[in-house]
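Is flavin-adenine dinucleotide placement plausible here? Inputs below.
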Amino acid sequence: METQLEIEQVDVQAPSDQMRDQTTTSKSTEAQPKQTRKKAVLRPKAVQTYDTIVVGAGISGIAAAYKMKQVGYQDYLVLEKAERVGGTWRDNNYPGCGCDVPSALYSFSFAPSHQWSHLFAKQPEILSYLERVVEQFELQDKICFQHELLSAKLNEEANIWQLETSQGTYQARTVIFSTGPITEPSLPKIKGIEGFKGEMFHSARWKHDYDLTGKRVAVIGTGASAIQFIPQIQPLAKELIVFQRTAPWVLPKADMQLNASVKSLVAKFPMIQQGWRNSVSSILNGINFGLRHPSLLEPVNFLSRQLLKLQIQDDALRKAVTPNFSIGCKRLLFANNYYPALQQDNVTLLPQGLVEIDGQTVIAANGERFEVDVIIWGTGFEVAHPPIGQRVWNAQGERLADLWKDSSPEAYLGTSLENVPNAFLVLGPNILVYDSFIGIAEAQIQYIVDGLGFVAQTYL
Ligand SMILES: Cc1cc2nc3c(=O)[nH]c(=O)nc-3n(C[C@H](O)[C@H](O)[C@H](O)COP(=O)(O)OP(=O)(O)OC[C@H]3O[C@@H](n4cnc5c(N)ncnc54)[C@H](O)[C@@H]3O)c2cc1C
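Reply from A.M.:
I modeled the complex. Tokens:
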């Protein structure tokens, strides 16, 4: 512990009571309630100092906490701004939200589960899995909820990180920023957006208390989240206008339910899941390899075109949703129910971006206008510039967001930043490949924990 001074409000006796205590007998004061008032005094403030502070308790923060505990580190803490763990899987709870990577791979290597109800888990199951892992490895005592990091500045002289949080000041010799790569909803700058008269929300902040039944709905975007929630809301909406700026490549999702006997088989023979995990990993690595050798992605291309042919009867619609770029240049999406939803009578697929909002009217790039009750933004996340950059200052006293303003951020192995010593990013810039984010985070955390050992040995 190190000491600083802080102002504290203390109760002091009102002057009139003090005088009375000194001048009157005990008999006369017995029945008189004492008056108190507040006074500001300077007191030593306990600044809590740790070897390592992890910021964020999503999959990366949980994995970091687990790994540090496993190698025997005690002096660390996880600061989480929300009230529970889970990150992405806590915040994204739109209808149909789920994982595009089979759970055998989208789970921690140290915590395989035989309880998945499907090959591809949905959001509620992933969230409870993450909570179970925290409980199973007794990590909850290490996590401080409702502790939002406001700023992280390196005191180079003292070689210590000073972290201002919503609950006070912390200090740490090393910091792991596991604040998420896909966290902050991104809203496009659309003319007239402030004047929209209806309801609107982003898919990552779904308004569950807003009933979509019988409503005229505009969905903006056809990315990973939109293609999951469109089939869910289509049966409710009176009218559904889907604004598609870029058609994504969509592959069939080879999902299936895992019944009780499959689960008990997996529990009895964990090798089954390990084998499935390895196979999925190899397939995804194959896709990554194919990105550099596009001819190898031909079978994937064929599968995607077959899905378009099989599921879309209308030629004009098929043409409108056929991507105009090579497969693999943008994230591949997986769905069996997206194209069928687009063909329903109440749905209009508009191969146009939204350019303006006028009162309750949304206006497409080709000038078409639709009056709607609600806009749902499926416009993704701020991924180009990690939001944590707004809150971290490097050794030169420069804010990372200011350094990144005119360029893409770079980090060694997506983890270590120039001039930001004794600090690490998990799932930092340029790590996006076709793989489980959990696997990537775990690999980075292994590197980070090795780094922590080095810092501990060399720390002056
Ligand atoms: C809808 C959706 C579907 C996805 N599907 C897949 C998929 O199929 N396969 C795949 O591999 N990946 C998928 N991803 C990517 C996913 O983001 C990652 O897999 C993973 O959730 C990242 O975990 P994380 O812990 O690094 O970040 P997050 O899950 O974002 O967690 C970050 C945590 O940090 C906290 N935090 C942030 N700022 C602060 C602060 N200033 N102070 C304190 N706490 C803070 C947040 O509250 C949060 O709890 C998906 C993402 C989304 C949004």
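Short version: Residues 55-61, 79-82, 87-88, 92, 97, 99-101, 106, 148-149, 178-183, 225, 391, 426-427, 436-437, 441 surround flavin-adenine dinucleotide (CB under 6 Å).
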